[in-house]
Automatic annotation (TrEMBL):
InterPro entries, A to Z: EF_Hand_1_Ca_BS, Kinase-like_dom_sf, Prot_kinase_dom, Ser/Thr_kinase_AS
GO terms classed as biological process: mitotic DNA damage checkpoint signaling
UniProt source species: Wickerhamomyces ciferrii (strain ATCC 14091 / BCRC 22168 / CBS 111 / JCM 3599 / NBRC 0793 / NRRL Y-1031 F-60-10) (Yeast)
Keywords (A to Z) from UniProt: Kinase, Transferase
Protein name: CBL-interacting protein kinase 11
C-alpha cells in the first residue's frame, strides 16, 4: 500500500500546480490518491523559515493535514489511510467517497431535491460540529468538498488542506484560510479589501460557507452576483440583500414550497454579522424542528 508505483490510476479527478488528485486501485480496492509535488512544498518551507524561523521538511507540511484528518475522523469526514514520501512527491491515500456534489465552475447549475438537501444539511452539521468542538475549522467549505457516497444517500466532507487548528471562540484566527472566493463571508471580503481591518473569527467562516453551500445545492446558484470581477463579487457579498425564495423547482420542474423554518435557518447562517450568525451548535438544535 505504501508504494505509489503499484497504484493503478483509474481516473484523474483534479490537478493544479501544487497537487494532483486521482482515483486509484490498490490491491484491488478503490481509493483516492492526493499527490503533492515537492517543489511548491519546498517553496512553502522556505517561506515559513523566513517568516517564522521554522525548520520544516516537505513531508512535515502534509503530515499536518494527515494528523488533522486522523484527529477528526468520524462518519461524516473522509478517512485517511497512509502518508507516503516517495520520489518527487508526497502522497495521501484516502477513502474513496464517491462524487462531489458540485464543482467550482459557476456554470455548474446542478440542483438537488429539497428532501435530499435537508438530509445532507443534518449530516454536514454533524461533521462540522465535531470539527468545531475540537477547535478546528474546515476553511474551504463548498459543494466540491462534499462527496456523495455510492449509496446515494449519505455524504462525507473532504479536502482539509485549508483547515486551521486551535481555533478559539474568544480571539481571531492567526491566519486566513485559502478558501474559494464565491464562499467568502462578508468579513473575509472586508479583510481582503482592507487587511488592516478587524481580526477574523474562525468558526463563523465555516457557518457562512455552509449557508452558501446549502443555497447552491438547492437553487443551483449562489445568492450573490458572481458574473463580474472578484471585486464585484466581494461588493455583492458585503452589500447585497439576501433573499430566500419561498418555492423551489423540484426534479420534475414543478414548484414545491420551502418550509418557513428552513428559510429562517438559512437566513441565520447567512447573517452578514459574524457575531449574530448562527453557530453550528445552534444549527444542530434548530434542525430538530425542520
Amino acid at each position: 500500500m505504501d508504494n505509489p508505483e503499484e497504484w493503478e490510476i483509474i481516473e484523474p479527478i483534479s490537478r493544479n500546480s501544487k497537487c494532483s488528485v486521482n482515483s486509484v486501485l490498490v490491491n484491488g480496492d478503490k481509493f483516492i490518491s492526493k499527490q503533492y509535488f515537492k517543489t511548491p512544498l519546498k517553496r512553502e518551507c522556505l517561506k515559513l523559515k523566513k517568516l517564522k524561523g521554522l525548520e520544516l521538511k516537505e513531508v512535515d507540511i502534509i503530515r499536518k493535514e494527515y494528523n488533522l484528518m486522523k484527529k477528526i475522523q468520524n462518519s461524516r469526514t473522509i478517512d485517511v489511510f497512509s502518508l507516503v514520501d516517495y520520489g518527487t512527491s508526497i502522497y495521501l491515500l484516502l477513502e474513496y467517497g464517491g462524487d462531489p456534489l458540485g464543482t467550482d465552475n459557476i456554470q455548474d447549475t446542478r440542483r438537488y431535491a429539497i428532501q435530499d438537501v435537508l438530509i445532507w444539511m443534518v449530516q454536514l452539521t454533524q461533521g462540522l460540529k465535531i470539527m468545531h468542538d475540537q477547535g478546528i475549522i474546515h476553511g474551504d467549505f463548498k459543494p466540491s468538498n462534499v462527496l456523495l457516497l455510492p449509496n446515494g444517500r449519505d455524504i462525507k466532507i473532504c479536502d482539509f488542506g485549508s483547515s486551521i487548528e486551535n481555533v478559539d471562540d474568544t480571539r481571531p484566527i492567526d491566519k486566513i484560510p485559502k478558501c474559494t472566493p464565491a464562499y467568502y463571508s462578508p468579513e473575509l471580503c472586508e479583510h481582503s479589501l482592507n487587511p488592516k481591518s478587524m481580526g477574523i473569527m474562525g468558526k463563523p467562516l465555516d457557518v457562512w460557507a455552509l449557508g452558501v453551500t446549502i443555497y447552491k445545492l438547492l437553487f443551483g446558484v449562489i445568492p450573490f452576483n458572481c458574473s463580474g470581477t472578484i471585486f464585484q463579487l466581494q461588493y455583492s457579498i458585503i452589500n447585497d440583500l439576501i433573499e430566500i425564495p419561498n418555492e423551489v423547482l423540484d426534479q420534475n420542474d414543478l414548484f414545491i414550497s420551502i418550509p418557513k423554518n428552513f428559510i429562517k435557518i438559512l437566513l441565520a447562517l447567512l447573517d452578514k454579522d459574524p457575531n449574530q450568525r448562527m453557530t453550528i451548535q445552534e444549527l444542530e438544535k434548530s434542525l430538530e424542528g425542520v
